[in-house]
Structure to design on (957 residues):
């Protein structure tokens, strides 16, 4: 009997029992606790879940978490059941809310409650269950009590469970076996998207809006309202003051809601603001009360609390509080992961308040506008980096040993990496103490519900001992501290918080001013020598010395690990060019900011410490990043390099990579990791560092079999450059009055409306040639660009006329599945996006056509893309140097056949441009495809490849 049949048999018994005693189970006296014990627990036990923890005895590693139903006022704070899949006990797979059978499940209150759990935790579907009925609810829609009943996707009555087809639906959605195979994600992917016209037509009530999108919009609206109200009451406030004051107010409101929803505070504050007839005074009073108890930057005395500050319009502030209050808000801060709050704040910090004499507006920061938006690091990337650095550093160590370690992000933003570092440290300590009970009691843990729990004092020490961050943005520093405080208090209760406050007479939040620093990680205070900076410029630059900011850590040799996602900016450091030139050895032409962060990080990590960033992949292959690449390869151990088959950051045409490095360790083979999607990655290859140094670049996309096939292709061959001359097309410029080269399209062009050939066009003088660009070149064919160009002047790099007048091969620099190129006999001007190949000494069209067939074959594209790494997913490209080194072979019989087939394909491609009928066009297209395949086969034969080797090339292409 398989698992599904076994489950069906067990659940059939439950159904029979329920049916026989249905009147009893549907009576009002039969409670929720009864139905959970008698039916719901057994139902999911039958589906393969360890409901009674008979197997998963470690309380920190259990796939089913069961709550006892905790209410604050009328609101239940936590879902009855949360289901996870090992080994990931952090991210809930789905929630299930239990009810007693006498209750009609189809009601707005229960739907709102259940959907609120799912939406806040970013699980796309959730479930209501009383055994009599099972309701599946859509949690992609922001919960709205007035429309929440439309969130029902499907429901089942218990009598339907006996239908084998219906039971199969339930089993392959909710069983442990199915959930482990991502059944819920697959189910959600097939749900219709409630957006656009479908919403307008009423097919969906509400909008498809994730928790982070919705809360960001709400925070933006609150900031706008507060800024305008603050400015109206206090006209003297400048932009920087308003930006800080609105954020501090929002931070307090968010923190208070967190304390309420986590049940750390026994009373609800925000819903009561205004009970004294003045909501702002109530807010200030609560802030002072909470400051005394919690400390930290959030409630610290501020201009907001002073008598000099005129309170905002009470109607405005009351409205904000009413919207945020637990009784009205769809947000549940007990459920929202802290890292989600961090990602929301990351984007929120991309804007500032701009004040004039009478008005205020919200604007993106200049650096955000320049970058095209804020791009926060996806959590799976953060997890991967932290697990492979901090996770490795603490593995097997005791709490006493870990207390001596320090971990940093020196461009921390809103703190997403530091939150995760703190989370891993807490998680590790919990597991360690669970296995070392004697030490747990001695170190201050307390025992509750079968597990040893870290005290607040222990968590405070972990935070202050181990976590460090730097950012240039003071707002970001404040948010990082706020996020770490939220993480610190995440598992506290009213009782534990009160014990620390009353018994130990200690404030609950440690001072983080020496841990999270507002300063410039790249520029030290030596830049101030000579007194050339005005005060406002110095405050903006915020130069900082790590020896001053973190004296104890620097004296001990530095940090044990640095992680993060540093800023990217091509051609960085222009404003302080001389400083960067004299202080950074990795400096090269058009250096990116992340290179400076790599160099700085390497200075501040202990020997054998660990280092990991997600950065652009330009460091792997570009000549402008040669120094940083060679340094990492020769002086450090690059454990892993991860690359991606998709853009990591949405709406950003940028290829990314992750490196994991053991600093100052002996280099060893580099493990190459490839992410197929955010949930799936695997090891694809290993690269030997010395080989990468010899080649001069790193190619993490090279397949495991590539080296063997390279050798077969290269044996008894000669480099292409031995037979021909290569150049690239035109790039024009002119010199300005200061002697600087300005690249521009300032050379002379004229349109040829009649598309006459050069030789028959008497209207143009002889310096003009018809122009072609990359977009005009296809495989074995080309089109004119409808322009003529005079190439005799304004050239950045002069070309000899033979590259334009002689017979030639023209190849696109951008490479796809195959190289796009063709043979051109006529005189023509060629754009810089193309490479030009001509004969060395005399005209030999046959040689060029044979070479065209080899280079434009499947083998040609595969060799260039896998041998080298000068390409990315969106716009793959290769260099003249790489093309020049392409291994060429000739064979009399094969070369004759290849020439013949290339000639046929060139002719067929010409004919396909002007077919007489659709039938003729279809025939010619089939003929071209057939000839293309014949060329591939002839090239495979020329290089002596076997069927297995051909399959490797074909599958890669």
């Amino acid at each position: 009997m398989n698992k599904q049949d076994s489950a069906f048999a067990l659940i059939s018994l439950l159904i029979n029992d329920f049916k026989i005693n249905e009147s009893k189970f549907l009576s009002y006296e039969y409670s929720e606790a009864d139905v959970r014990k008698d039916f719901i627990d057994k139902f999911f036990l039958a589906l393969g879940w360890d409901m009674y923890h008979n197997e998963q005895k470690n309380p920190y590693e259990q796939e089913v978490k069961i709550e006892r139903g905790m209410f604050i006022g009328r609101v239940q704070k936590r879902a009855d059941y949360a289901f996870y899949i090992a080994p990931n006990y952090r991210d809930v797979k789905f929630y299930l809310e239990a009810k007693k059978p006498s209750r009609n499940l189809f009601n707005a209150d229960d739907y709102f409650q259940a959907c609120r759990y799912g939406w806040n935790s970013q699980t796309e579907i959730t479930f209501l269950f009383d055994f009599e009925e099972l309701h599946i609810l859509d949690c992609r829609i922001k919960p709205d009590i007035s429309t929440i009943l439309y969130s029902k996707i499907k429901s089942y009555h218990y009598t339907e469970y006996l239908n084998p087809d219906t039971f199969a639906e339930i089993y392959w959605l909710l069983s442990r076996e199915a959930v482990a195979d991502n059944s819920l994600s697959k189910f959600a992917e097939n749900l219709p998207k409630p957006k656009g016209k479908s919403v307008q037509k009423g097919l969906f009530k509400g909008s498809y809006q994730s928790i982070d999108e919705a809360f960001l919009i709400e925070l933006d609206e609150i900031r706008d309202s507060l800024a305008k109200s603050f400015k109206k009451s206090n006209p003297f406030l400048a932009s920087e003051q308003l930006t800080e004051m609105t954020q501090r107010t929002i931070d307090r409101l968010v923190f208070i809601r967190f304390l309420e929803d986590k049940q750390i505070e026994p009373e609800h504050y925000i819903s009561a603001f205004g009970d004294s007839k003045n909501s702002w005074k109530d807010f200030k009073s609560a802030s002072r009360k909470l400051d005394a108890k919690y400390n930290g930057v959030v409630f610290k005395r501020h201009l907001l609390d002073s008598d000099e500050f005129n309170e905002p319009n009470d109607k405005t502030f009351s409205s904000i509080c009413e919207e945020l209050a637990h009784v009205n808000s769809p947000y549940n801060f007990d459920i929202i992961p802290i890292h989600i709050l961090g990602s929301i704040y990351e984007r929120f910090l991309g804007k500032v308040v701009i004040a004039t004499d009478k008005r205020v507006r919200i604007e993106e920061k200049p650096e955000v506008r320049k970058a095209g938006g804020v791009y926060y690091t996806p959590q799976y990337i953060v997890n991967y980096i932290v697990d492979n650095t901090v996770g490795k550093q603490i593995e097997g160590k005791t709490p006493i040993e870990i207390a001596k370690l320090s971990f940093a992000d020196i461009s921390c933003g809103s703190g997403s990496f530091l939150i995760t570092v703190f989370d891993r440290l807490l998680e590790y300590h919990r597991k360690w103490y669970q296995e070392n009970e004697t030490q747990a009691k001695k170190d201050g843990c307390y025992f509750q519900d079968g597990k040893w729990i870290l005290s607040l004092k222990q968590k405070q020490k972990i935070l202050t001992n181990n976590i460090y961050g730097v950012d240039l943005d003071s707002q970001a520093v404040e948010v990082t501290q706020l996020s770490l405080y939220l993480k610190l208090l995440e598992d506290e209760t009213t009782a534990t918080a009160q014990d620390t406050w009353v018994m130990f007479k200690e404030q609950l939040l440690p001072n983080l001013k020496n841990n999270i620093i507002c300063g410039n990680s790249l520029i030290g205070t030596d830049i101030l020598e000579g007194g050339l900076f005005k005060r406002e410029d110095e405050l903006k630059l915020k130069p900082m010395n790590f020896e001053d900011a973190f004296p104890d850590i620097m004296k001990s040799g530095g940090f044990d690990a640095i992680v993060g996602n540093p800023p990217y900016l091509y051609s960085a450091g222009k404003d302080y060019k001389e400083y960067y030139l004299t202080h950074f050895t990795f400096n090269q032409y058009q250096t990116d900011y992340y290179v400076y962060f790599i160099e700085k990080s390497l200075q501040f990590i202990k020997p054998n410490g660990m280092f990991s960033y997600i950065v652009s992949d330009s460091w792997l292959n570009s000549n402008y990043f040669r120094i940083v690449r060679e340094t990492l390869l020769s002086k450090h151990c690059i454990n892993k390099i991860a690359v991606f088959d998709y853009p990591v950051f949405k709406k950003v045409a940028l290829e990314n990579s992750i490196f994991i490095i053991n600093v100052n360790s002996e280099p060893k083979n580099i493990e190459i990791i490839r992410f197929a999607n955010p949930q799936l990655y695997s090891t694809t290859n290993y690269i030997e560092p010395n080989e990468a140094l010899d080649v001069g670049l790193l190619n993490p996309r090279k397949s495991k079999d590539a080296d063997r096939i390279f050798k077969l292709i290269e044996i008894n061959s000669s480099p292409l450059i031995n037979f021909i001359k290569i150049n690239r097309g035109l790039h024009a410029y002119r010199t300005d009055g200061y002697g600087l080269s300005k690249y521009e399209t300032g050379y002379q062009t004229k349109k040829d409306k009649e598309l006459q050939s050069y030789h028959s066009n008497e209207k143009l003088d002889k310096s003009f040639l018809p122009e072609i660009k990359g977009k005009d070149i296809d495989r074995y064919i080309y089109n004119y660009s409808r322009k003529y160009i005079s190439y005799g002047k304004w050239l950045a790099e002069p070309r000899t006329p033979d590259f334009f007048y002689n017979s030639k091969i023209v190849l696109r620099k951008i490479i796809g599945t195959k190289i796009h190129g063709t043979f051109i006999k006529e005189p023509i001007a060629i754009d810089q996006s193309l490479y030009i190949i001509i004969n060395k000494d005399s005209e030999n069209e046959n040689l060029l056509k044979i070479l065209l067939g080899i280079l434009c074959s499947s083998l040609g594209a595969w060799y260039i893309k896998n041998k080298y790494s000068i390409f990315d997913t969106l716009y793959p490209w290769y260099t003249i140097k790489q093309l020049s080194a392409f291994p060429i072979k000739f064979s009399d019989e094969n070369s004759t056949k290849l020439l013949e087939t290339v000639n046929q394909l060139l002719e067929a491609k010409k004919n396909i441009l002007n077919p007489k009928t659709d039938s003729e066009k279809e025939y010619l297209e089939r003929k071209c495809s057939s000839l293309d395949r014949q060329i591939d086969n002839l090239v495979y034969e020329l290089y002596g490849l076997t069927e297995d080797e051909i399959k490797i090339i074909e599958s890669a292409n």
In short: The radius of gyration is 33 Å. DSSP finds 37 helices and 35 strands in the chain. Residues 70-76, 196-206, 732-762 have pLDDT under 50 and may be disordered. Residues 172 and 181 are 9 Å apart (CA to CA).
